[in-house]
Batch of 4 targets.
Target 1
Amino acid sequence: MVIKMKGIIMIIDGMADRPLEELGGKTPLEAAKTPNMDKMAELGVNGIMDSIQPGIRPGSDTAHLSILGYDPYQVYTGRGPFEAAGVGVEVMPGDIAFRCNFSTASEDGTITDRRAGRIREGTDQLAETLNTMGLEEDVQVIFKESTGHRAVLVLRGPGLSDQISDADPKHEGKKYKEVVGLDDSPQAQKTSRILNRVIKKSYQLLKEHPINMERTKKGEPPANIVLPRGAGAVPNAQPFNEKYNLKSACIAETGLIQGIAQIVGMDIIEVEGATGGVDTNLDNITNSILLNATLDYDFLLINIDGADEAGHDGNLQEKVEFIEKVDEVIGKVMELEDVYFILTADHSTPIAVMDHTGDPVPLVIKGPGVRVDAVNQFHERAAASGGLCRIRGSDIMNILLDLMNRSSKFGA
Amino acid sequence: MVIKMKGIIMIIDGMADRPLEELGGKTPLEAAKTPNMDKMAELGVNGIMDSIQPGIRPGSDTAHLSILGYDPYQVYTGRGPFEAAGVGVEVMPGDIAFRCNFSTASEDGTITDRRAGRIREGTDQLAETLNTMGLEEDVQVIFKESTGHRAVLVLRGPGLSDQISDADPKHEGKKYKEVVGLDDSPQAQKTSRILNRVIKKSYQLLKEHPINMERTKKGEPPANIVLPRGAGAVPNAQPFNEKYNLKSACIAETGLIQGIAQIVGMDIIEVEGATGGVDTNLDNITNSILLNATLDYDFLLINIDGADEAGHDGNLQEKVEFIEKVDEVIGKVMELEDVYFILTADHSTPIAVMDHTGDPVPLVIKGPGVRVDAVNQFHERAAASGGLCRIRGSDIMNILLDLMNRSSKFGA
């Protein structure tokens, strides 16, 4: 009987780094005690990977798209669609999606607080009220709250364009901007016309909203207007399951990665206590991986975010400690049978840079038949001498499908 | 305070080679004593590079274009434009440029000497006279002498095309060829019509030119006609400084590389005594690098040509000796602070082939935060086990900008 192999790609967000003087010239991943990752390097075939291309600084979103086999230069039309999908709006190809702020406006449209006093509570009710707008012309208007003062707006209907300007004036004390088309198309005209009305209506619907009446009473700036920016058209990406003939799910902590998974049509598994920070509940994440790997999924995409957060904060100790904690997750996932298991990062987030860089990341593939190499540690430098040499994110799904024996031959 | 890092790419033209029996199986770079390059390998991250693609034999021009981040298959329209720029014609996008010979023609147009007796003196005066042509129709005609019997011709005006044939008959004793359009476009017709008149006029203007009267008196063949070949349209390449937001300069010895730099809009630094041969003045080149690196340039492209010349000549001893001399230049450039320094070659010019080959070249990057690897010698084979693995010329600027912290993130 042929065993049907499963595939797991586990991405430790921003784990890779650069050598640091304070670690005696080691990287955090080199310095961390990672017996399980090292064991995986020993049992697998190793290499370094450029998520997009050598030297290109990837976002987590564009890196994941590339690793899943989508060309980010084609598919990534801006952050709006992925953010909207990430907060749970079931976006559809052709939708125009925006990132929005709940802001505070005076009667004449002057923005007095771009973040409405960093409002944290009640934005779900504000979004619910905004959704009573329903249709503008033949276009459906969909609001959804995100974290804090953030929200998303999706316009769905015929003849829309993402070639329109932002309403957000970027500075307080200025009036919000009238949205205009960035080209002369009737689509851009229609979209900007509708959006300008939506903004005006948001003020009408929110200015005396109970949530805002209460805020005003407490001396807090009311969240009485919505300012969209970063228009992007939801791309027509071929669904992942159809593209690869796989049944797939994504276990990710952040809306950004969940948004990617949603747009390509993967099932999204929520994990309780997954915060996306170094305080996340790794036990729950581990259990979710182990459980879902036994269900009828062929493929799991896993993203664990804490190392990236520590990198952005420039917090070396937290980064090292979190990598060591993640190592325990790896140890348990390695015990799964009949699985090709790929461990990597989406990009480097060096402590010394506090942002993503274009340095390649280490990658290891464990599973039956791989050409095990001499590498027996999992880190940036050891991986560079591995049997995979240097590959790209866009190679990974092809390599995995080939190992899973799910590829078809090109030619005879 | 954040230190603004500079970038230097130093290209030792044609330095890479193949193993040679007479060196006991070593390459010239392996055999040469290069303590400074080896030190740089030890301090840096190493790899091999294909300037264009594995196995493709690059010209120095196409290799440099690729390393600077321009796709040579898009930008390199032929040698004419780069040669014209290299001899100092300020070419503009859309110009049609030709390489020309000063030749000797008889009254009926038969070419009796394609190189006019390899004329060396007075071609500047011939070019000056040819430039009195001024306009043909609405097209400006610009001549400029190059080395020996060579010259360039640039046509500047509306409605021109590079799809036209050569005038050079390639064999002596034949009449020069009437230029014809290679397609049916009115642009090709116009360009060939003008070019045929320019060739005729060159004969009229040169046949009794004082320089030629004197040559005839001395029994030397007169340089009495100009034969253009290799039409190319000057590409509309995005200026380097704009593309990367850098202030850049090029220190190069040959017109070919200076032409590349000029077409992409870099400042060109002339160095006295830089011959492009093994006899070049490396002290002056070193001083120019050290001086210009302290000026307000962000980026220097350096090309040193002697090793390529020795390779073309098949002169092993000269190649090894020149590499050893260049090593001293590297030693001094390595002392510069706050610089990312990339040392490489543009292509191999193996002694045994006496021409460029598609073998990859070694490359090392030195500077803060690079993932220093175990390589401690700088040559073709050592580099192949370095931390960069195998990259392409088109990756280099992306990698450098990322290290210089001048990249922007693609995505979130």
Target 2
Amino acid sequence: MRIKIINPNTTQAFTDALQQLADSVARPDTQVLAVSPATGPASIESFYDEALAVPGVLEEVARGEREENIDAYVLACFGDPGLYAARELTDKPVLGIAEAAFHMASMAGACFSVVTTAPRVRFMTEHLVSRYGFNEHCKRIRTTPMRVLDLATSPDTAIAKVIAECRLAMAEDKAEAIVLGCAGMSAHREYIEREIGIPVIDGTVAAVKLCEAMVDMKLGTSKVLTFNWPRPELAAPGKGLKIA
Amino acid sequence: MRIKIINPNTTQAFTDALQQLADSVARPDTQVLAVSPATGPASIESFYDEALAVPGVLEEVARGEREENIDAYVLACFGDPGLYAARELTDKPVLGIAEAAFHMASMAGACFSVVTTAPRVRFMTEHLVSRYGFNEHCKRIRTTPMRVLDLATSPDTAIAKVIAECRLAMAEDKAEAIVLGCAGMSAHREYIEREIGIPVIDGTVAAVKLCEAMVDMKLGTSKVLTFNWPRPELAAPGKGLKIA
Amino acid sequence: MRIKIINPNTTQAFTDALQQLADSVARPDTQVLAVSPATGPASIESFYDEALAVPGVLEEVARGEREENIDAYVLACFGDPGLYAARELTDKPVLGIAEAAFHMASMAGACFSVVTTAPRVRFMTEHLVSRYGFNEHCKRIRTTPMRVLDLATSPDTAIAKVIAECRLAMAEDKAEAIVLGCAGMSAHREYIEREIGIPVIDGTVAAVKLCEAMVDMKLGTSKVLTFNWPRPELAAPGKGLKIA
Amino acid sequence: MRIKIINPNTTQAFTDALQQLADSVARPDTQVLAVSPATGPASIESFYDEALAVPGVLEEVARGEREENIDAYVLACFGDPGLYAARELTDKPVLGIAEAAFHMASMAGACFSVVTTAPRVRFMTEHLVSRYGFNEHCKRIRTTPMRVLDLATSPDTAIAKVIAECRLAMAEDKAEAIVLGCAGMSAHREYIEREIGIPVIDGTVAAVKLCEAMVDMKLGTSKVLTFNWPRPELAAPGKGLKIA
Amino acid sequence: MRIKIINPNTTQAFTDALQQLADSVARPDTQVLAVSPATGPASIESFYDEALAVPGVLEEVARGEREENIDAYVLACFGDPGLYAARELTDKPVLGIAEAAFHMASMAGACFSVVTTAPRVRFMTEHLVSRYGFNEHCKRIRTTPMRVLDLATSPDTAIAKVIAECRLAMAEDKAEAIVLGCAGMSAHREYIEREIGIPVIDGTVAAVKLCEAMVDMKLGTSKVLTFNWPRPELAAPGKGLKIA
Amino acid sequence: MRIKIINPNTTQAFTDALQQLADSVARPDTQVLAVSPATGPASIESFYDEALAVPGVLEEVARGEREENIDAYVLACFGDPGLYAARELTDKPVLGIAEAAFHMASMAGACFSVVTTAPRVRFMTEHLVSRYGFNEHCKRIRTTPMRVLDLATSPDTAIAKVIAECRLAMAEDKAEAIVLGCAGMSAHREYIEREIGIPVIDGTVAAVKLCEAMVDMKLGTSKVLTFNWPRPELAAPGKGLKIA
């Protein structure tokens, strides 16, 4: 099967890391195609950044439908930007990495905390936790005093901060699993898990494996109402989508 | 004061109706500027439509900041598309019409129901009700078998359906106020209210009056964290925003 | 229009302060009439105090209907005592200042905390937050080790404590706006806001401006069921209410 | 032990019925004293009625403390009017009959519905259900087209309506127990239960038995903060309360 | 009346203590029969322990129905193991001690915290709080670094830790009552209450008194659906239950 | 990998059907071992049935750990009996089929309804929906007037009833996906889906695919606290578990 991972920001280093990570966890019969849109923000740390990123995300889904023969889509930014709109463009599964990580974490531990980057995304993450139904499972959103791009420029310092925050999550929140709240941390998941000794869930890995499961189940996106196709004058799936 | 109403769709008839409606309720010292973006969907009835509309909405907020000396913004589509992103572009109040209507309705009646257009928006509206905290006040989202544009093309039939649904809301949900769930119904608010005999709240009217209140209170958007300005490389408020 | 502010306690200094404050924010065409009942508690810091204050509040609403030609009512005590009962006595808007402050705060910041006086009111305030639907927006009720009347007798010390608590709300709760949980703090709102740098909402100001908005909208209290008029044998609106 | 039942309305026929009912369920060593205040509404069917009734309720609690050597108090109106204020006047248990009924019903059946009188009390009852924590246990508030006093003037017709509504609760809500939502129905509890075949809980009975249990447990009202005594200038428990 | 207390673990010292405690609070006309199953875990501190204990609990309920003429049952372990299954085996009341304690605590104080033993039971206790509807009343589950059996082997040290935790509950959670989260603490309830000065609720005491109340009310377990008798091939109440 | 499916009831026809179903969806490199315990109830339709089934379920998990080299466990009864206890016996993934189905359904459609067998399981299913966090996603639990074993004895009639109920879920609840609430329906999933035209999720299929995903992710059960191993005196994993 073919899974397309859409990194909604334009930082190619992150896209490359996602490709490598996904390749390492995908099944032999799964091809992963990690892309990032031509234009958009270099990182996504606010609602405005998300808004800038969404048209590019949708264009990539549309291209996937039109010409790439894709079986499932992963939106690889922890805010799941454009998730519901993307679901209208396809009847294949479309998963956000926050969504995927929360589901998996809730099956691995009695409760979890999210450890993420800049404090600014707390409100956004709280809304996702609430919208997806994890208010009881998720004990706390923990932010660290760093920017997303610090994970690329000074990974050692950044990951040390992440690990310290994970330990606080264990001691103070009694978290029994950790969700990494930023796709930029994905490459360090194993190391963090080894250091802290409880399951650490990366959303991209979770989403790739959930996509494989859904494709095997022939389970896609229900088109009966909410995620029905866009109206013809706006978009013709498989032909040529008109995205503003 | 100057209030800018942004109709996120490109149907000029709706924009004109919003201008007229807002003029009729605004205070003498309030100037209302109703606009719609140059490009975007003709109506907004799904998440995809919203996603197409958001860049235009943000561009209008940015223009307001840059050159129009605006005191407050109203997003005149019942899904409040781009609301949180728009708040990052200004320290003035920015209100969505769903948000404004829910607040006002909860102060006017013990409970309310929403009467809106096509069934497809139910899920979207439920999320807004939940996100803004009105799960107990809002008894039900009632959709009618019509499209948004029916309100423009055959208003009599459309409004008759709306009134019938309002009466069901009173009989079945025991609703004590009605929120109109579509900016296209705004012009008919008074007529509907007279017919059914309980308060009928239109979000655009509510938002304009709440903007006046907030401006008088010198109450804008808190910039301390979540809605802080976009990062300089993405946007320079007052200078020239780079929207994808 | 004519707005009647009812201070449910009998401390005239607070009533005078409310009059002055409201005059400073009301529109030129708005007359504000601040009163306090003839009898009742000197301050309201418990459920029992509230119960003592309610009959006087209702008498003032009844008098407003009977002889004062009032367009809207504000109950200026943060427990909103008698709010729902008062709504039965009139078809005009009746707003509590806790209710008004919560609504306004939720439109100004991503989340808020309440800073109020004596610890004893915490439970009461939590119930209001929950009843009005602000459990997710309101991060915490913060009480200070002081009595309501300390705000009148030693305002400098009292306000310093309030400001310290606001700073804790920012640091610990990540509050993006502050709601002042006591009408006695109203006069100091601007000063506190200047000191802490995020929006500070006073309920009396919020309620006055919301009343103006609702009157302009011709939006009153729905009389269809819950807040219908009292039965004739108990009360004859506009004639002479019999309050025990 | 001595339990005082306070009927907050002034209809002596109801008070007599409560005395008789309580005598029939109280233990031999329990003396029940059913009273109604000297003044107040003849029935309680709205928030305004409640507000009129509260001062009389509090006066009866104060008299109980001052001169009647009471061990526990029951507020025998389904809106639990003045419950929290009454708790400040004593360190003995004070139970509302709605509260008592909900607790007992949740231990008798998997879920329950409330069957009560006039539609107007629905909102009030919903708030009690929510405040006390029974949103999941309570399936629905069912009102009947009758007034409280109909239970006294034409009991046969009234009870037939109640039974019909109970049967709807079983068929439509799948209720496994019924809570009678009005003290005026108490005398008919056994008959209704026999007719419908599932547990029917009357709040007055429930409250009397819970009072006996709490007194045996030496469990009263915690005075540490929220329900602490009124301030001395307002009330001197055991001496003479000043109620407005 | 005859109340059977089932201690789900096999530690006879705890069973004896429960018998003694219950005898000291039961009415003169109440006979208490405290038992523990023949086999099962020595203490219950995890879901697995609970699963081991449930068959023995059910066998004791079945024996009570078959040959002991029991009027009500108490499951004396704070996880309420097998509560809903036990309710299928009888039409008498069956109460768990966590359930009983939460109900009583919510009528005694504005809010409460639970103080219990090993950290491992936190998740289990949170679920009970949530399932029974006490999410708003219960401020926090506080665990102490001890094992259940420490209460038997070194009670002084263990109780000192419990009291310290209760004091933290008062200072940090603002708890106005304490629920003891382990049947092993029951014997020390009075001492703890005297030390900390707010109501301390023991679940076994609460359950015994609630059983007496329910039996007096002729209120048992609704058999209409959820807790209906087991199917004949599995169990014949009053004849001989087949428990695996 | 090796996945063990434990059918908690002793009806071999169901176990065989589960084996066949799982084989048809498992990956080529996955071996599925479907078993049912030696003793236990023939079907599980109440809490009592669940209690009877749990020891057998746990014994099968223990055997899996001891001698069968299992990588993940599926509990194939829609009440997820013994799920949390089973997680203590292993550090591998253990999934209930209700849990698995809810997670998958929430990623496939905007909302779903559950269609299950006898009315008696409604309360049990509601608790699972609530405990796992799906109160907003799950619109309704729909029961059909049938017994679990009807699915084996007269499948045509039974499935016709299920399909009729699914159609009601679409029309009345606006469900966009259906979760089959009984393992006995699994074999008919495809047929039902084809008939009704929206995604139909079977929990066993969902759980098998989620297990494969979790094993690939090296994600098991967090042993840090809640699901830590049983105490040595009760159980020695890998050696010989003592189950009552």
Target 3
Amino acid sequence: MFALCVFGSAISTSTPAADLDAGKAKAMSCAMCHGANGISQMPGAPNLAGQQAIYVEQQLKHFRSGKRSNEIMGVIAKPLTDTEISDLAAWYESIKVSVVER
Amino acid sequence: MFALCVFGSAISTSTPAADLDAGKAKAMSCAMCHGANGISQMPGAPNLAGQQAIYVEQQLKHFRSGKRSNEIMGVIAKPLTDTEISDLAAWYESIKVSVVER
């Protein structure tokens, strides 16, 4: 089964570089569920450590717009600005994870 | 800001144990986007390595039902059975990841 993988929305190259420190600070309010280092502390809340910034950004915008629905994330994402979203996404992507070989 | 974290749906304790080998075999058709070891190979496709089984299971069921919309995942999840979903979710959770301290 050949699956054509086109996930990424058009990547605009003009967005200013994200601020990792601001992202880290903002992520403190996410830590209760997603963990201080992005490893989930709550069943049903995904790990975010090392997750692609483009994916996290996309999902936060979907939660903010309602395109993706979740009671908690809909409330949390609503007030986020584009800059805060991009800083959060960059912060989580910056957390390096490695797969432990079996 | 206190965020009440209630993500997990009721965890039924009677479901049969997932089959990791079957999950690994099924995940081969996901590897082009999500990577053979669950580390994404495609912008916009999330890493799944070490992701919580309850979260992966929930999201695959949402894609299958249409509660969560994505052109690719809607097509891919549609034919999946509950058993295949639980095997896939268990497989990805079984991939151990560690956060690389900074």
Target 4
Amino acid sequence: MKVAKFGGSSVASGEKFKQVAKIVTSDPERRIVVVSAPGKRFSEDTKMTDLLIALAAKVQLGEDYMNEFGQIVDRYREIVTELEMSTDILSDIMANLQSIIDIHKHDSFRLLDCIKASGEDNNAKLMAAYFNHLGHEAYYVNPKEAGIFVTDEPGHARVLPHSYQEIEKLKERTGILVVPGFFGYSENGNMVTFSRGGSDITGSILAAGVKAALYENFTDVDSIYSVDPRIVKNPKEVKEVTYREMRELSYGGFSVFHDEALEPVYKLGIPVCVKNTNNPSAPGTFIVPKRKYSDTPVVGIAGDTGFCNIHVSKYLLNRELGFGRRLLQILEDEGISYEHTPSGIDNISVIMREHQLTPEKEERVFSRIQTELEVDELFIERDLALIMVVGEGMNSSVGIAAKATEALARADVNLEMINQGSSEVSMMFGVKSEVVPKAVEALYNAYFNNVYSISYTNS
Amino acid sequence: MKVAKFGGSSVASGEKFKQVAKIVTSDPERRIVVVSAPGKRFSEDTKMTDLLIALAAKVQLGEDYMNEFGQIVDRYREIVTELEMSTDILSDIMANLQSIIDIHKHDSFRLLDCIKASGEDNNAKLMAAYFNHLGHEAYYVNPKEAGIFVTDEPGHARVLPHSYQEIEKLKERTGILVVPGFFGYSENGNMVTFSRGGSDITGSILAAGVKAALYENFTDVDSIYSVDPRIVKNPKEVKEVTYREMRELSYGGFSVFHDEALEPVYKLGIPVCVKNTNNPSAPGTFIVPKRKYSDTPVVGIAGDTGFCNIHVSKYLLNRELGFGRRLLQILEDEGISYEHTPSGIDNISVIMREHQLTPEKEERVFSRIQTELEVDELFIERDLALIMVVGEGMNSSVGIAAKATEALARADVNLEMINQGSSEVSMMFGVKSEVVPKAVEALYNAYFNNVYSISYTNS
């Protein structure tokens, strides 16, 4: 049994629905289909999810929302018309939307969450109806019916462990089961969404629940690339990547696959294949528990911006038991999570995602560090980026660091930070945001094109 | 006014006392002299401090201690005889030792501390008497009289801030003032020692108190070397080093100067000169607030062993607010201080000095990490060393990291960890202990002999 998830661009139009149906019905093992809400059909197009957010905003403001409501229904209508299906289903969709508005209009947080989830939900109904229209046995399966139970944290739901036994029962059902992505149900019956991009999570949970042979993740690229194609033209395709490598690449800014989504399949060792809906015969990228590292020790290079660094120093700091712990406690009290804490003897840097540090939080954090820790020096460095060189094969390989630092020096990239050694899967470099493209390109050329090589000369 | 401190080997014999007197009297600015206890005269010799520890041990056990007592007095007697001084002073020394024993024999902790401190104390009395014997105006000044007040933590005393006003009054006195190093007095009148090597601390406190023009630290080497001479033969002498660089080098294993000792003079910007008692005309090494970095961006390479690394990993660890803080709390609860915490996305390494981790503490720490943090993976890596490349001039210098990693790769040194970026003064590499000599040598050759150089070839 395979679980196939189709992303927003794969279900953006009637034409795409036809392609999905062709893919699903071409392999009888493809029994569970997870769909996103309709995505963009062209680069200036608006995603269904954004139309829904606009609708929720109008409802919250108590303003007339018929225009936004109409746009949403029109978007589904176009798909139905393109597929030459009966428009009866549109009344169901309209009734569903209206009932969400009526129930939640006084709870703007819940309203937004349920309206967003309806994008996937109604699209799954449409997809199931299209399979039926083509004469296939297929069913829309609501996440509650499927057994996807989650914590009641709208926008951050986490699957509850007992879901998996429930989901396993889907194996007994016949036909194609179409499940909307992006949300589950809390114990007290609320629709609750995962974080954005969470349809990947739904697919992964279902694949784990039914112990699928393969979790196929259909998107709009032939494969995952070893580097961002906007930085390096025609980069090398990644044929195989391990879960751990994928997680590091996602963290480093690879957006093709939602990183939290790997957890359920990772635990069971279920392989994932990222494929192109528009070119399903291309082999795609396999995400697997283990791969052969010999030919490609490094699998990819990622770079992500939006970090900052709070730097503190204090003479004889390293003699103070509890200094680091108290520093982290101050951040925790403000709900700020940090990424890394490289340290010297008398100084610590705390690297974090910059957006977390609102001006108010920054002021409170700085004032507490100053008064409670009595530091000699305290400053913030903004506009930092982290660049990750990822590959399980580089573990304890002499010279890997030399290759990277040499390539970066050659490209005249100044290193704010090097972090290597804790993770066996990656090496991390902190640089100023503006040098990310040249740094990433230099590293790509070093590892994938062998452009620079060290030669040793005695002088 | 200069403060001149003479280390153990500089006051180990009558011959050395003569040398010290010659140095002190050759410059009328040398007004405050700090002495250690007599050190080794030859490599198999026993230091006075170790004789005193042996005496304290016998007293504590309630055993006959006349043999140990006799050895100590004999050691002073040899000096007195060599200097052709009256032996009257030996009675004072014997009475002093006996009174410490009588007062503290039932408090073994305090006994050890006071007996150890007597090594410096009696040697200072001897030195002052020798100056008088030569016809110079000189006075033994007890630390209480000098105004060195400290916290009541035997073996770890810290100077109390009001000491400095007291010490400043020494400027009004005439003659040469000889002060014993290594200890001060608590508010309730106890002799309390600094950590071992603490005579450097006494000198620094006195230099800060009298706002000396220079703090001279006389030892048995011509200068501080850029690398351990046991690893690299005839290494480059360091002419100038900043306080911050010196602290990093001390941390990295340079033992020539007690690192805590720099704090008092650092705060006032008083320069320190490390000189050789046996070759006082050599310029020595100046420790200064700032230096010119242009010709020597890297000032020294140090390597220290005895570290270990506790490694934890957990899937999606970086989403858990407070994980790092709770990990550090567990260590703090056991009184374990850590050095560095390099981290990946889903893992953290905590690097600490290995001796802290007794088998019992290790067991408790591991069990708490496992149960409270529910980690996926937990292990300890032993026999680690930290190698530091130190130099203020390497701050934001492109290619410094490349030079180091290239040299290490060339020497076939596998890097367990790289830590660069928090400190502007150093770059740190974690390696297995057994490769320290070859790693240090490779780095020395790269920075000081330019043995390896990077050349770039397109292939």
